[in-house]
Amino acid sequence: MSSRKRLPALSALTTATALACLASLSAVLCLSGCGTDRPAAAPGGVPGSPSPVSSPAATPASPHAEPDRGDSAPHNAENTIGRRPGEMTAADREAARKEAARVRPVLEKLRTEGRIAPDAVRPALAALGFPPADLRVQAPWSRWNVDHAEKVPGTLYGIRIGATACVSGMLDAGQAWTEVTGPYPETGCVAPPVAH
To answer: Which of residues 64 and 106 earns the better pLDDT score?
Structure first.
């Protein structure tokens, strides 16, 4: 008698499973090369050597590209440039902060009295000593009508302080809003309407 042990016979199910696994492995190995490009010979090079590939950096950028736009719409930076205030000097910023502290209580008093129209706000701001050339008071922009024909209750105002700063804001029945900014490119010290 031999000292070798006989392995038990494989069942039909085990054999079928082993063959299915082998077939799947063969298919994966055969198809793993599909869709990949084989390098062609470089011009004047050896067959099988890689050909030069252009990198994204080598491709000229579109003149309309906005690489830092994130999730915003194309040309968003271009379309909203008029809504970005200019830079202020430190001295003008400090002077504007002091003037904003004087403006806020006057506007809050007008708001509590229900006097929020431009014809009430203009004389109140002028009484604080701002020159007429530095003072702009108007009805607020409509957020919904592109032509701004809709009349919105309240007042939008801007006061030039020094050469580079503004006290800007809005007065309506619910709030007296005041902020210190640089001038806007198209609207000066008045915050511009929402861009398209």
So the answer is: 106
Tokens 């003149």 identify what position?
A: 63
Q: What is the mean pLDDT of residues 100-117?
A: 97
Nearest of 100, 62, 66, 61 to residue 81 by alpha carbon: 66
Cβ(56)–Cβ(62) below 8 Å: no
Within 8 A by CB and 6+ apart from 110, the residues are 116, 120, 121, 124, 171, 176
Contacts of 117 (CB under 8 A, 6+ apart): 153, 154, 155
At residue 42 the predicted structure's pLDDT band, cuts being 50, 70 and 90, is very low
Contact 182, 166 (CB under 8 A): yes
Q: Is 189's pLDDT higher than 60?
A: yes
The strand pairing partners of 169, in sequence order, are: 157, 178
Whether the Cβ atoms of residue 70 and residue 185 lie closer than 8 Å to each other:
no
